[in-house]
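During the reporting period the student researcher (J.K.) took over the structure-prediction task from the postdoctoral fellow and processed the backlog of single-chain submissions. One of the processed entries is reproduced below for the supervisory committee.
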Amino acid sequence: MVVWPPNNGGFPGALGTWFVLTSSSNFTNSFSRLWGIGGDIPVGGAK
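J.K. obtained the following structure tokens:
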């Protein structure tokens, strides 16, 4: 499970921090990563 709130003043598409809750830990562990470049637009998907 991943959440991406806009970063850098709230500008859509700006570099943001992705917060990841890992299924391999039964959703008890998490980590975060800075990812993206200006102009990126996150899209959700599910299988």
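The committee noted the following: The radius of gyration is 12 Å.
J.K. will present the remaining backlog at the next meeting.
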